[in-house]
Specification:
The protein contains ten helices and six strands; from the N terminus they run H-H-H-H-H-E-H-E-E-H-E-E-E-H-H-H. The chain is an alpha+beta fold.
């Protein structure tokens, strides 16, 4: 696993803010294509709950009201520059760049972020399975990090994560169409970076599609190594307490993809 410990330079708030628009431009461009396909995804990459009213009825309005209450008084600029929000956006953009050909990459709704503690999800374009989800962590002090590791492992051994506002691929005529759906038993992985690394990653992010800075590549390589280690941990856990069959199926499918990425395929 790559070591980012040598990076010590503190970035100024102004310097980081200059690069946030580059990250936003890339995400807005990528998600515009999703919306052309009819996906309920906003400019920030988040699932829009309004697109699920036929599925859930009035509960959608209640979830939207609760979220509005949670974020009341927080400006868009404040949200964009919080370390946790920056990490979610950076990780989302890197998943889009590196996995976007094979997966639909979506940030979860505000409801699933707050209630189910899931930040990002991957939908396999070929088989239509929601294959895994991620919880991004910007606070990596020893105590918090170990607690997060245990919480994620415990959730996976109890059957994985549920996502109320998820996606699925449905055959309609001779076409595959992405439609709103709920999902259960999703493998969850945590993605953790320190504040300095997040800000350096944002500063060096290239908004052009098909291009990545060396630092972007290094961060994504770190993500892959971390996910691979978590998969190994779950496989060991499965020897002690059998994992949910649906979660295990998804886990094994994603393991093959991760192994391919590690081999450069």
């Amino acid at each position: 696993m790559k070591d980012f410990g040598k990076i010590r330079r503190d970035l100024s708030e102004a310097e980081t803010e200059e690069r946030v628009p580059a990250l936003a431009r890339f995400i807005e461009s990528a998600t515009a294509d999703y919306r052309k396909q009819g996906l309920p995804i906003g400019e920030d990459g988040r699932i829009r709950m309004e697109g699920y009213k036929l599925l859930y009825g009035e509960s959608v309005d209640e979830d939207i009201r609760q979220e509005a209450s949670r974020i009341e008084g927080t400006t868009e600029k404040q949200k964009a520059n919080l370390d946790g929000e920056m990490l979610e956006r950076l990780a989302y953009a890197l998943f889009l760049k590196n996995l976007g050909k094979q997966f639909i990459v979506a940030r979860t709704s505000h409801h699933d972020d707050a209630v189910n503690h899931v930040d990002t999800m991957l939908l396999d374009k070929e088989n239509g399975h929601l294959i895994c989800a991620f919880d991004e962590v910007s606070d990596i002090n020893d105590r918090f990090y170990s607690e997060k590791q245990k919480a994620v492992m415990d959730r996976n051994t109890r059957g994985g994560s549920n996502v109320k506002y998820a996606l699925r691929l449905k055959d309609i005529g001779d076409k595959k169409v992405v439609t709103p759906a709920g999902a259960e038993h999703i493998p969850l992985f945590y993605i953790a970076l320190s504040s300095n690394i997040i800000r350096e990653g944002v500063r060096k992010f290239k908004d052009a599609h098909g291009e990545q800075s060396d630092f972007e590549k290094q961060i994504f390589g770190y993500f892959i190594e971390s996910i691979s280690a978590q998969i190994q941990g779950l496989e060991l856990e499965d020897r002690l307490t059998s994992l949910n069959p649906k979660l295990k199926e998804r886990l094994l499918g994603f393991k093959k993809i991760i192994e391919g990425l590690k081999q450069g395929n």
